Amino acid sequence: MVKICCIGAGYVGGPTMAVIALKCPEIEVAVVDISAPRINAWNSDHLPIYEPGLDDVVKKCRGKNLFFSTDVEKHVAEANIVFVSVNTPTKTQGLGAGKAADLTYWESAARMIADVSKSDKIVVEKSTVPVKTAEAIERILTHNRKGINFTILSNPEFLAEGTAIKDLFNPDRVLIGGRETPDGQKAILALRDVYAHWVPVERILCTNLWSAELSKLAANAFLAQRISSVNAMSALCEATGADVSQVSHSIGTDSRIGPKFLNASVGFGGSCFQKDILNLVYICECNGLPEVANYWKQVIKVNDYQKTRFVNRVVSSMFNTVSGKKIAILGFAFKKDTGDTRETPAIDVCKGLLGDKAKLSVYDPQVSEDQIMRDLAMKKFDWDHPAHLQPLSPTTNKQQVSVVWDVQEAVTDAHGICILTEWDEFKNLDYQKVYDNMQKPAFVFDGRNVVDVKKLREIGFIVYSIGKPL
Ligand code: NAD
Ligand code: UGA
Description:
The protein is of the alpha/beta class and 470 residues long. It has two domains: 197 residues, Rossmann fold; 246 residues, NAD(P)-binding Rossmann-like Domain (Rossmann fold), CATH 3.40.50. The strands form two sheets. It has an eight-stranded mixed β-sheet with strand order 3-2-1-4-5-6-7-8, sandwiched between helices. The protein has a six-stranded parallel β-sheet with strand order 11-10-9-12-13-14, sandwiched between helices. Helix 9 packs across helix 11, helix 11 runs antiparallel to helix 12 and helix 12 packs across helix 13. The longest helix has 32 residues. The relative contact order is 0.09. Bound molecules: nicotinamide-adenine-dinucleotide and uridine-5'-diphosphate-glucuronic acid. Nicotinamide-adenine-dinucleotide (NAD) binds next to helix 5. Its EC number is 1.1.1.22. It holds the Pfam family UDPG_MGDP_dh_C.
């Protein structure tokens, strides 16, 4: 019987392993983590992450062939295939700080695998890592435990949050990279057999290790680059009277460009795009390719520009001051259908407005007050480094920020509304009631282009949308 263990019960490890367990009933899957609260949550009725469809999958397999445990060493020792899906955040200190990937968690997982293993194992890189990481991991694994055969594979994950289960059930492709040796090829086939339970084999791509590792960084860089490209166009649209939705549609109908991922926004967020591009930039610099590094760096710069531009627009439209004015923030998660706030553009926008002394009333259907306050009190890049997390200073934000569980409460007496996440409910709010409850003139700054601009203007709102004529 094949036994799989996944180290890291996060946004990737949890859903991915749950789907493997569902699709491969004869395989026993254990998901392990050093965080006891996280494992407890996976074993409870309130899973640690909000992801449509996830509850169903977990309920069907948990306790049968899917287990969540803090007994990391036992499950690693028993497994034939060990996935490593730990966090790989941006380094905050030392060499490469602010760019390079911090592989501390990965390395400690690799050392632990080497220490506890008593039988041969396939070790799978599920985390997103710099190209050539497998070489370092191999050295750690083989150096520590002679006589045991570790074969390393790269199997990056392409799921997006909010659609993780859909993406896992029906992936565009599964990518498996391995050494071009008999052992490497055998390991690729073993992992391919797991996915082949539900993924058509022609969609399982097999490459060498470095191509697989780099393809993951490249895919995220290309995706983020599309957003920065359309966001750059949105600025030009605002300056010229073109409408970015019409431009996106017009270019997206070219089959070589395609219609997806062309929505202008307040900026992209999420735990990976920025981190992975910075990582790519660092790798290019280390390989003596400054021109290539600068090319990709620009994707991040345009994203930062878009967030700053949004804040500047809010302040300048509201007579150059938001000091003491209540502004409702609708949506804090980095996209709809997730409670994840990692690198959400809402953090930068809120911090920008707080810097201008605004009073914020934040509403998001999936994000807790504690999380929002923590995010607003934290330094850039610190969110994924638990050791850096400072206890929240009650004076930092509480006087300027309130978090509410009701849209109407958020907007009452507000001078302006900023829509920062495209939650469906924001499309169909009773905007007449919203308008009646607000200070006048009432402003709407739609950072996700979800509202019906014409309708809102008829009600009396002053509406600013990304890349739309004023
Ligand atoms: P996460 O922070 O949600 O989960 C990582 C988990 O690993 C945490 O629960 C942490 O406690 C645990 N962990 C860290 N070190 C450990 C150790 N030594 N032993 C046991 N557990 C340990 O992260 P995530 O969002 O699931 O991302 C994981 C990796 O997958 C990252 O490299 C990320 O870039 C990549 N990725 C993420 C997504 C996504 O949508 N979030 C998608 C594709 C790829
Ligand atoms: C992204 C990729 O889409 C996944 O393939 C990848 O596996 C993952 O990163 C990862 O490596 O972590 P995710 O960040 O979960 O997934 O979500 P996306 O749907 O890509 O959205 C990222 C950000 O871009 C969000 O803030 C979203 O609102 C924004 N976005 C997306 C736009 O502003 N415009 C668009 O057209 C699309």
